Amino acid sequence: MTSASLPQGVLLAFYGDDFTGSTDAMEALAKSGVKTVLFLEPPTPELLVERFPHVECVGVAGISRSLSPEAMEQELIPVFEALHKLKPRMVHYKVCSTFDSSPQTGSIGKAIELGLAVFGERRFVPVLAGVPVLGRYTVFGHHFAYSMGDVHRLDRHPVMSRHPVTPMAEADLRLHLAKQTDKRLGHLSVLDLQSKELTTVQQRLESVLNTGSRVVLFDVIDDAMQLRIGELLWHEAMREEEGSGQNPEAPPLFAAGSSGVEYALAGYWKEQGLIAPAPPAPAAAGKGDFSGQNPQPLLVLSGSCSPVTEGQIHYALDHGFIGLRAPVLQLADTDTSVAEEVESRLMDQAAEALRTGRNVIIYTSLGPQDDTIPLLKQQLADAGIEPSESGKLLGSRLGRMARKLIGLCQLRRLLVAGGDTSGYLIQELGIMAMELQAPLVPGGPLCKVYAEDEALNGLELCLKGGQVGPPDFFVKVMEERTIGP
Q1: Left (φ > 0), alpha (ψ -120 to 50) or beta: where does 357 sit?
Q2: Which residues contact 352 (CB under 8 A, 6 or more apart)?
Q3: Which parts of 320-437 fold into alpha helices (H)?
Q4: What DSSP string describes 107-166?
Q5: Cα dihedral sign, 298-301-79-231
Q6: How far is the first Cα of the chain from the last one, in angstroms, to the nearest whole number?
Q7: Segment holding 366, helix H or strand E
């Protein structure tokens, strides 16, 4: 990236409301040539100078999608304050591209209010949910998502309409957000965004802002429209009268939405020649070999209830993977001795298979109709535990198993499926940061891990949301060969 074209310092800082979505945002930037590092804890300015002087965009992988509004305050305010110290031109609260949230769990409206409180008021908060490359589209305020061969309106989506924690019963994102915040909502539709002239689109934006709207939802139907939004957002972030880019104390532009924000910005920077071409991805040079080492087995940990992941598990089992169903009722038992005994037994089974070179999947459920889902909800309710806590309970247990198995079996590659559990799982590993290693499918990249623990440092990690990837995705991750440094 040329300093003459774009300002020095951090261009964009983002917080991902789950871990799989955080790697999605990182991938969108990094594969376009924007130097991006994803951290598990907010970095200090000093750390960036000392360890990551090349960084241009910074991400923090979080867990707020599974939190109550009160817990979101405790989680987000310290992170936002730390990101503010990096003096980014923009800050993005990154959410899932299916916008799953509710007033009680993972409230996007609450996050917007907290962002405004920490970063200060700009003219408006842009909200962008659509990501054409992921099959996510917003048209006249209504959101649509591709799944299993067709594009579905969000409230009729075969997965999101039946999400076990935040089922989406409303496709109009304006109505959905209005239940989460009192901020006045505006909207730029596909008709407003058709013009290729920035000034015309800016005039439409001014008309919306003149109504008193301070949160503006953007439609997006294709890459060209996404590009125009990127141009508009970057010009807004760099408005001279705001002093952004000139006055280091000026508040950054705060946005909320999917990785469409990253794709929009990176696309605009790339179109304008403001960023250097991305280096080629590590070359494919065969199958089943990682970083020039001897073949290593793949460990998959799945906490996903998605039918997409269900299909991927079945495909992998049909192609030689060993499947171990995690006994979730016992793992979530309030009697910790029961949970620990089951955890130990499951880990021993996995280690035995991995040591013989077999690829292993440990999974908590097979699709949204799995019998254990309602049973686990009832068990938690009987114990006075909120159902949304299931991700934390299971994710933490899976994470402890993963860390032990990585050391015991000298694993070099790990795949984690499921947004709600992945954050708690990865937190148990003790990772400091991640960078893009190689793109696999949009939204599911292979990442390189930075960690103080030598067993984890350099680990190749793929975090996959429930809706991401084709049926053979687990096999593709196993076969992908990358040539390490």
Answers
A1: left
A2: none
A3: 328-331, 336-355, 372-382, 390-409, 419-427
A4: -HHHHHHHHHHHH---S-EEEE--BGGGTEEEETTEEEEEETTEEEEGGG-TTGGG-SSS
A5: positive
A6: 22
A7: none
Residue whose pair of structure tokens reads 């992941």 in the numeric block: 309
The amino acid at residue 281 is A
Per-residue pLDDT of the chain (485 residues; tens, 9 = 90+): 444 477 889 999 999 999 989 999 999 999 999 999 999 999 999 999 999 999 999 999 999 998 999 999 999 999 999 999 999 999 999 999 999 899 999 999 999 999 999 998 899 999 999 999 999 999 999 999 998 889 999 999 887 877 777 788 899 999 999 999 999 999 999 999 999 899 999 999 999 999 999 999 999 999 999 999 999 999 999 985 444 445 657 799 999 999 999 999 999 999 999 887 776 655 443 344 434 343 689 999 999 999 999 999 999 999 999 999 999 999 999 999 999 999 999 999 999 999 999 999 999 999 989 999 999 999 999 999 988 788 889 999 999 999 999 999 999 999 999 877 888 899 999 999 999 999 999 889 999 999 999 999 999 999 998 889 999 999 999 998 653 43
What are the domain boundaries of the chain? 12-271, 299-479
CATH fold group of domain 299-479: Molybdenum Cofactor Biosythetic Enzyme; Chain A (3.40.980)
Q: Do domains 12-271 and 299-479 have the same CATH topology?
A: no
Give the Cβ contact number of residue 453 at 10 Å: 15
CB 439 within 8 A of CB 27: yes
Rounded distance, CA 109 to CA 393, Å? 26
Three-state DSSP at 377 gives helix
Closest listed residue to residue 301, CA positions, set 107, 158, 71, 461: 461
What tokens does 33 get?
A: 């040539």
**Single-letter amino acid, residue 439:** P
- The whole-angstrom separation of Cα 90 and Cα 9 is 11
Residue 90, token pair as written in the block: 């923009």
**CATH topology (fold) of 12-271:** Rossmann fold (3.40.50)
Q: Residues 6 or more apart from 437 whose CB is under 8 A from it?
A: 282, 445, 446, 447, 448, 460, 482
